[in-house]
Write a structure and sequence with these properties.
TIM Barrel; 14 helices; single chain; 323 residues; 37% helix; alpha/beta; three-stranded antiparallel beta sheet
Length: 323
Amino acid sequence: MARGTLVISDDGYEIVPGILNDSICGTIIPSLVNAHTHLGDSFITKVPAGSISETVGPGGFKEKALSGATSQEITRGMSWAQEVMLSTGTTCFVDFRESGMKGVKLLRNTEQKNLRQVILGRPSGDDRAGEVLSVSEGIALSSLNDLPLSFILETKNAVKKQGKIFAMHFSENVRESIENLAQVAPDFIVHGIETSESELEQLAEMKIPVVITPHSNVFYGKRPDYSRFARKGIATMLGTDNGMITSPNLLAEMSFLYHYQRQIDSLEPSYILNMATEVPRQFFRSLGIGIPDSFVLFPNVLLTEREIVTRGTYYNRKIIQIA
């Protein structure tokens, strides 16, 4: 944290040392990037019951709810979730979008100003990978154990031929094969919480970033030590996962992670803040995803990193968009 002034001009912006005027004072941070959402199930209000596989696996609770819902119900939930993100400082999110072409298009139709959608679709029914890629930034699959390895590799090859993003869930519920993951070599994975120490070292060697979703994991009875990723030097990002379980409020997710880790192996507030700001911003830009520069201003208060992480939801906020 440093004192300075954000100067915006036609050429962009710069942060210069010192206080240049008294017009607007407060604390500024880069706007938040939610690196993992499933917004399609945000309309579901019934509490999901059962294990992870029974709830979000193939043929499970979520899939049945989505198949029985109208497009209007689904899009209302998606719109609400995006309003929550904007109101809590998020200006970009990465969605693992189920339901093939239909799922991608439903989310596209809810696009909101100043909120960058990065949609990773999923082949479904008669919708092939190439068709889904035509309307999305890439493809994200469920898990290694859900699908034949040959299908995963075929899908990944189709994605990379178009220079787009390929991602998947990995070792969320049970340990999955790190050798198979090495064959697939996704751009990033979500979860990775059932990995061993040696598998984490392999992830670090492969330079595969990990997105963690603490609230969601606890909902399912999972209580991993997320500091393991930090100790191995793995690029780690923060997401909120399923809309039917948690709201897509990254300020709340940061606070939860900080307090959760305190009695396990503490994570520094600066590390957690970077997980939601600079790490995902730099990573997705490296994959060719345009994320506009923007900031969150907490007016009239000078906050420490710890205060932002643990109390960010308590203060007024304003998004400053750089043209």
